């Protein structure tokens, strides 16, 4: 089996990680492309002594750490009047800290602490403290109001419990597209958690599009088929949770979405 064939099944999930890491589909997918280009350009440098998925993420982390894509320079070139130092400060504020990288790699991507240590190039003993640091930061995060769009009662109750335990308020639980839009208009949320397939065969994606047409709000999609929404070929979710999910996964996704939503510079 060729290296490309070995890596292909893992690309959707690398896109998920890249988007969560950058808070942007565009920027996350750009880093994934850069990773693939680096592998094609120098296949001998791909780590062969580890699992292909681990090697793929390792290459991605190298691209991310080296900051081959200087977004600050890109913005300054678009707007010559922009204060480059101010842009740099704003971008730095939006950078996902090492502690959150450790949390995303373990809670969202399912890597072991040992694997996460390898990926972010720290001592394995540091990973648990980094994750604890991220969780402490989350506890200090501004509370939000969350709309849940989910037609399966047990899952909806589970999500609602997680959201409330994190200190957020739930504005409502919708089971159809129309109900979701009505609830959003009645009580504007600061975050939306949306399933893809709803009770009346309507789409959570369409519900979110209707809501976003009225006002901007960060969205996390929940699906059992993440690869369908992580192709990189069209406008797709920035934040995505895979069913069945772990409590830690939901917590990490919510905190990361709100982390970027609190920033003042658009992705």
TrEMBL record:
Annotated positions of the 4-aspartylphosphate modification: 195
Keyword DNA repair attributed: no
Gene Ontology biological-process annotations: phosphorelay signal transduction system
UniProt-listed CDD domains: REC_PhyR
Matches recorded under SMART domains: REC
Keyword annotations from UniProtKB, A to Z: Phosphoprotein
Superkingdom field: Bacteria
Domain Response regulatory: 145-258
NCBIfam families: PRK09191.1 (NF006623)
Database matches in PANTHER family: RESPONSE REGULATORY DOMAIN-CONTAINING PROTEIN (PTHR44591:SF3), STRESS RESPONSE REGULATOR PROTEIN 1 (PTHR44591)
Protein's recorded name: Phyllosphere-induced regulator PhyR
